[in-house]
Amino acid sequence: MWKFSIVLVGLILSFSQILIEASDDSNSNNCPRIKLKRQWGGKPSTIINYRPVPVKYVIIHHTVTKECFKFLECAEILQNMQHHHMSVSDFDDIAYNFLIGNDGVIYEGTGWYVRGAHTYGYNQNGIGIGFIGNFMEKLPNRKALKAAKELLACGVAKGALDPHYELLGATQVSSTKSPGLTLYNEIQEWDHWSAHAGKNK
Q1: For residue 197, what pLDDT is reported?
Q2: Distance (Å, whole) CA 35 – CA 151
Q3: CA 187 to mean position of chain CA atoms
Q4: What is the mean pLDDT of residues 150-160?
Q5: Quick one: CA torsion of 162, 152, 138, 175, rounded to 10 degrees?
Q6: Which of 59, 98, 114, 139 makes a 20 to 30 Å CA pair with 154?
Q7: Radius of gyration from C-alpha coordinates of the chain
């Protein structure tokens, strides 16, 4: 009898996990799976500043760190980055809304609805996406680039991103070389890239 009870409990737990995964917001609207901040070992924001959606701008960055190809490598980089942003730069959280590794995984930063600190003048009405690595002389791999495009489509489907959003490289709106010249050339071929960065108000 006790063996039957153990099997029954196991089945209930398995079914519950399926329901949780099915209701996961990252799977709605054909969205790619996103590793939540708690899953990569991130700390909660010290202050949460929500902002209205949909937002008008997407700003592409690179993190100028090592690249990562496995979850544990990416998680360690993100933990160190968040610590630096919060303790040295005095940000409320990691600067970016999302980050993408060469493992093809999207990592939650501040997410869709909370203001980041990625680009002065574009934090309230922009999504900051940081590719993990340095892409001055090379591109992120295909998995990472594909994940970014899926994330953008997801944002529109969720209503978090304006269907007519403008895609910009950070170098267009701030004094930085981010997202790296090679990656910057790549995103100029993407849908919604804007050659004329409008002044965000």
Answers
A1: 72
A2: 12
A3: 16
A4: 97
A5: 30
A6: 139
A7: 18
